Amino acid sequence: MERTLTNFIRALRSSDVRVSTGEALDATRAVALIGYQDRSLLKDSLGCVLAKSETEKQVHDRLFDLYFAHSDSQRGGSESSSETESTDGEAPASPEDLIALMESGDDTAISLAMERAAEAAGIDNIRFSTQVAYFAQQMVKQMGGDGLQERLLEALQGRGEENETRAQELIDMRRDLTMRARDRAERAFDVFGAGETDQFRNDFAAEKRLSALDQYDMERMKILIAKVAKRLAVKHSRRRRKRNRGQLDVRRTMRANAGLDGVPFNVIWRQKKRDRPKIVAICDVSGSVARYVRFLLLLLYSLADVVPDLHAFAFSNRLRAVDDILDNNEFEAAMTKIIRDLGMGSTDYGQAWSDLKVDHESIIDRRTTIIVLGDGRSNYGDPRNDLFQQFAQRAKQVIWLNPEARPLWGTGDSAIPRYLPYCTQMSHVATLKDLERAVDEVLSAYG
């Protein structure tokens, strides 16, 4: 019984339901109190203990119904006559036992034998959909499938109408047994493997080059970015005021206790003032860089609660604020419009910096983090690094995210070496994990 609950919790964890050790112990105590007999009560009790959100509750209920489905047949089977079960509660030990079991048509007894075979085959260790056929084969083998195959071959080698009829019966029996085993293996995959397979695909997508993503990956990336945003929001929204117990604020303490004859009943400690995050994102939307811009802006705009002061600009040559486009359109439609309107020109970083200087310089102050996403290739035009230097002096920090690998910086028309001295940090970004790391470091600077 304890292993049953442990495996269920493992299935929840594989499906991205966070279950702590303490919650697992609470679930064990709950089961010890109510038992496994009342399935509805057990489902509600475990749901209260293990699920902490509506989404997790939905996952819990789905897995509960899948995981405990076979337990009902096992419980019902315990009430059936011992004649329908194998000796000592084991799966059929011989071909004759298996054939007799299948010919009996007793679904309860067959299900019981199938569950014992599944346990013997280690069905709970299934991880990928490609393993379904393997575990189904192992379950059939545990039930005596090899012997059944031998009886089938003997019938096929024999002559006469009787042997042909028997062979067809055995073929149908083997097919039925295989389909039952496959259904059981698929259910086990839905419980134990589907979550881990999905997590494996998520990890692969998060480490895949953004430039290599195709349309098939987009929906998964949106889900991943939402998870990244939630993770960053949880990490950086809890900016508790840390009191430095080693530095007493004498002036404020005396003022707070002026009405108490100067007796310091209320002690006030020095607190470090923290700026609220303010980000100005300047994005090159020309060529292949536009694909990276899509994911950066989606991530930043998903962090609205953490970064309420966010300003986005896009350019290929002339720079333009795109906050209104992003605010008034669905994100994909907004990005299509931005790339269509601003991404078709010849790239000119110098002109972009000039537009920023003339029209938007006042938006940059000491709280501002400037995030530049681009490859720094300006078609051999004047990069106006003098203006870039001025922006860097006004801002809190300048972070440059370059989709090109480091060996390419400074080659051809790349002006990256001229901008590098004025950047707080310049890093290569190729994957979603790179973007997450960069945004995390930006927000950490305000902590």
From TrEMBL:
Highest taxon of the lineage: Bacteria
Region (Disordered) residue spans: 72-93
Composition bias, Low complexity: 74-84
InterPro entries: UCP010256, Uncharacterised_CoxE, vWFA_dom_sf
Family annotation (Pfam families): VWA_CoxE
Protein name: VWA domain-containing protein
